[in-house]
Amino acid sequence: MYALKVSINDGAPIVAGADDLAVLNTIINCVGQLGPATMPNGTEQAVDLHVSIGGLTGRRDGASDEHLGWLKMQPLQVGDTITVQLIETSAVDAPISGEAAAERKRDEKEYFEHCRRVYLELKDKYEI
């Protein structure tokens, strides 16, 4: 299976993966006033720097899917090094969290009605 091997600085790597995943990601976030030309949001809020590792299962035969997590919002500091390696392996670390994923509705009529509503709301803006 595909997996992500993620190391933060010199820490032990996390090998994230599962045999029923459809999505696997490592996300590094930098949120806030990141540069001198960024408009302040009105509060003196520190820049939020963090990394997370997660995934979403894609199970067969109608089995319920889950959002899985191997690392949740690990704080970072300027100068930290995050190494992400894409690997193929059969040995992965167990996730530290899992929560049921919302079931997707696949009702074509409902989707059509949604698209029609959006079209009617926006047509004056975009049609000539």
Question: Got a strand count?
Answer: 7
Helix-strand string: EEEEEEEH
| Total domains | 1
Task: Report the sheet-strand fraction.
Answer: 35-45%
Helix/strand-derived class?
mainly beta
Stretches where pLDDT is under 50 for at least 5 consecutive residues are none
N- and C-termini, Cα separation = 51 Å
Cα radius of gyration in angstroms: 20 Å
**Tell me, what's the shape?**
flat
Order of neighbouring strands in the sheet with most strands: 3-4-5-7
Fraction of residues in helix: 10-25%
Largest sheet report:
4 strands, antiparallel
- Give average pLDDT, whole number: 91
Task: Give the helix tally.
Answer: 1
Describe the structure.
This protein has 128 residues and is mostly beta strands. It has one domain (2-102). It has 1 helix and 7 strands. The chain has one helix at residues 108-126, and strands spanning 2-8, 14-16, 21-31, 48-57, 66-75, 82-88, 97-100. The strands form 2 sheets. Strands 3-4-5-7 form a 4-stranded antiparallel beta sheet, with no helix packed on it. A 3-stranded antiparallel beta sheet has the order 2-1-6, with no helix packed on it. It is flat. The N and C termini lie far apart (51 Å). 11% of the residues are buried. The model has no long low-confidence stretch (mean pLDDT 91).
